[in-house]
Design goal:
By secondary structure, the chain is an alpha+beta fold. The chain has five helices and eight strands. It has a domain of 87 residues: NE0471 N-terminal domain-like (2-Layer Sandwich).
């Protein structure tokens, strides 16, 4: 296996007689498999992408047996990646990129107008609700103001969309700390922005 570090350490390329894989340093660091980066029980990511150094790069890299070992700078953190795992997660492939469906709006940090509405208005005025839901459909989000802190207040927002499909966690899952947690939610570690259960395909009851 031949290794080349390119673009001042921003890119790593692995080449063999049968395949070639390319990975960005920022992707490798964000997807590191060590326990400081991934919780060994739940596999949740323990770092935030925004906290990684802007000038992150690979300083050294080598393949020993069936693993890639690379060290990142600044910081000098060394991580190991099984080569079969890298092959499975290689993203630098020739794919046909699909365009977004009509009506969707992409956005970045330059977005200046945040769509928002008061919960009371959303519950009583169908035109305001229609406009707010349209913002969710086109931007992917919209802000709600005026909520109180009572238990179950979240359903005031949920009911604007439809019914709740329950999971094994029940209709409402409380965030709490447990002595022997099996989920990052039940630890005292910070809960960073994330998507829950993206793998779930609900089944319908017949």
């Amino acid at each position: 296996m031949k290794i080349s570090i390119e673009n001042n350490g921003k890119v790593l390329r692995l080449s063999s007689s049968s395949a070639e894989m390319r990975f960005h340093a920022i992707w490798l660091r964000d997807n590191a498999l060590d326990p400081e980066t991934r919780d060994p029980v739940t596999s949740y990511r323990m770092i935030r992408f925004k906290d990684l150094p802007v000038d992150l790069h690979i300083s050294t890299a080598e393949v020993l047996e069936d693993e890639l070992i690379c060290t990142f700078a600044p910081g000098g953190k060394t991580v190991r990646f099984p080569l079969p795992w890298l092959a499975k997660h290689c993203y630098d492939k020739s794919v046909v990129k699909k365009s977004l469906p009509d009506g969707l709006i992409t956005w970045d940090g330059s977005l200046s107008i945040i769509p928002e509405a008061d919960i009371t208005a959303l519950q009583s005025d169908t035109e305001i609700l229609k406009h707010w839901l349209s913002s969710v459909a086109t931007l992917g989000f919209a802000k709600v103001t005026g909520l109180n802190s009572r238990s179950g207040a979240l359903y005031d927002i949920v009911d604007l969309f439809g019914y709740v499909r329950e999971t094994e966690f029940g209709r409402l899952s409380e965030v709490r700390i447990e002595a022997n947690p099996t989920n990052l939610t039940f630890t005292n570690d910070p809960a960073y922005p994330h998507t829950d259960n993206p793998y779930r395909i609900p089944t319908l009851s017949l």
